[in-house]
Amino acid sequence: MTAVAIRVSGLTKRFGQVVAVSDVTFTAEAGRVTGFIGPNGAGKSTTLRMLLGLTSADQGTALFGDVAYRDLSLPTSTVGAVLDIASAHPSSTARGHLRISCDLGGHPRDRVDHVIEVAGLAGYADRRVRGFSTGMRQRLALATALLGDPDVLVLDEPSNGLDPAGIVWLRTFLRDFSASGRTVLISSHVLTELQHSIDDLVLINQGQVAWTGPLTAFATEGSTLEEAFLALTTKEQVT
Ligand SMILES: Nc1ncnc2c1ncn2[C@@H]1O[C@H](COP(=O)(O)OP(=O)(O)OP(=O)(O)O)[C@@H](O)[C@H]1O
Ligand SMILES: [Mg+2]
């Protein structure tokens, strides 16, 4: 395990007239869970896609330690990402999908059984993905991200589709993962959903960072987390 912080500096992305992400700067530290939170359309997914080199940035940099994703020598051993849960072929089984992903990443085959166990997939690992619920797909996507035993996890709205037991399981998993000195960056459009899961908060609104710091400091911004969140994300943008 190597401590790898995520360093985002001045990231900017326009889609035609829409400025999706504007000069976004933050650090997600190793050993901590950082929540990347903002309302629908705030620019979360676009930022995370730029981190992973899936969308090109107009300006700015995103580094893992001091290396861009495309320059990592063993990308899936450094960064595990869940940005899109629809990647597995519908006619493959979860185990089959994991075996292929494991081989493609160059990881030892015993990782497959390990991630099936860790992600709680044991009960349906040999069923076809086409019959999977959203929550089962989320678990499979997370299992795939963990194949390379990565130092960093980047998760875009992983709680979507998880039942309450799944949410508690994910929270515990992320706590253990970060406690071992690894880095977690996790997005959501609901702060209260992640309030028990995160150490640090990066609040994004209309493509810009509206607040960043430890969650404990944010709680003093308003009488409840929800009020503080709404106060910062619903005010009119000053142009
Ligand atoms: N490929 C694209 N083409 C045009 N506009 C885009 C594209 N991708 C994102 N956008 C726009 O960029 C802005 C930010 O979108 P993004 O998906 O990053 O938001 P988000 O914070 O992930 O929202 P959500 O909570 O709904 O997932 C939105 O205005 C969106 O319409
Ligand atoms: Mg999104």
What does this structure look like?
A hairpin with a 2-residue loop joins strand 1 and strand 2. This protein is 33% helix and 25% strand. The protein has 239 residues and is an alpha/beta fold. The chain has a domain at 6-83 and 151-233: 3-Layer(aba) Sandwich (Rossmann fold), CATH 3.40.50.300. The protein starts with 5 loop residues before the first strand and ends in a 6-residue tail after the last helix. The protein has a six-stranded mixed sheet, sandwiched between helices. A three-stranded antiparallel sheet has the order 2-1-4, with helices on one face. Magnesium ion is lined by residues 44-45, 156.
Kindly list the characteristics that best describe this protein.
globular, 239 residues, 6-stranded mixed β-sheet, binds adenosine-5'-triphosphate, alpha/beta, Rossmann fold
